[in-house]
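Example 3.2
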Amino acid sequence: MAQIELRQVAKKFGNNYAVRPMDLTIRDGQFVVLLGPSGCGKTTTLRMISGLEAVTTGQILINDRDVTWNHPSDRDIAFVFQFFALYPLMTVRENIAFTLEAQGIQRNEVNQRVADVAKLLQISHLLKYRPRSLSGGDRQRVALARALVRRPSAFLMDEPLGALDAEFRSVMRSEIRRLHLEQGATTVYVTHDQIEAMAMSDVIVVMSNATVQQIGTPAEVYSNPANLFVARFIGSPGMNLIRCRYQEGTVLLPGGHPYRPNAATQEKLDQAVKANEVIVGFRPETVLLSNQGTIPAGVYADEMHGAFTMLHLTLAGDQTDSIVHVRSDRTVHFKIGEQLRFDLDPKHLRFFDVTTELAIC
């Protein structure tokens, strides 16, 4: 397998950055997801690793070997594309075997490797068919088989599930993760779907505006976002973010409702907060609904999501119409306009600088 290292790698088109200088180390056997909205630079980064796109500056190393200017065929990697890229006039078997045969590998070994990977991906019964007669999920399995049969040092996958419907995506997420665990292969995976990223990755690289915003485990980027972009982008819905006043150790929520952080948090806020304003962040599932809660709110909307109910609340007396999203028990429902009370769990509160948008604590 392989360790992939990017050292100050950047890509410019004219005077505009597609990827700003970035440092990234993908350890041997890791499953790393490049996550972000369209146009953020994640696919360009993947293409630079593969050699399909030349870097503007920086170095790319695979197993400590500088491959920055090497041809894609000299990097020992396999690329899985979003739209399968199968040869329509070849059978499934011929598609899988094509690269091996082009390398001059003996027929007996080709047959064995094709049989092994077909069995692994449960497509042995499809080997005689052509791609046009297959479902989207089966075509994606064939594309994966064609990559796996090469036994490369690393796999690069560019939104391989983007063309599938929701049911197939769920199945293939599990398939790809299972394959990764069985093969132990270094994998770099591009997606704009944060559910895919959270479910599949060991490490998530969150990107926006050609810049790496945060690198961390799924738990880290979800619970401790580095800035407001990550807080909004990760989660469905994203983190509740409320602009508040901060005076003499007390956070005043819209409507004048006070919240007093613990001493350690107060010390950090005292040092960081400028102009007496701070943004308070908390996830929907950390809101504590209670008749004895200190913060009053009204029900703006009540949505049944199957496994849970998503409440959308407005803070009493709030003139800015801030909406607080609350995840509650699926058996609990409220009428529009009904008055509730809640508390904030101090263990899950995050505070952000109003100007820089960076996390304070």
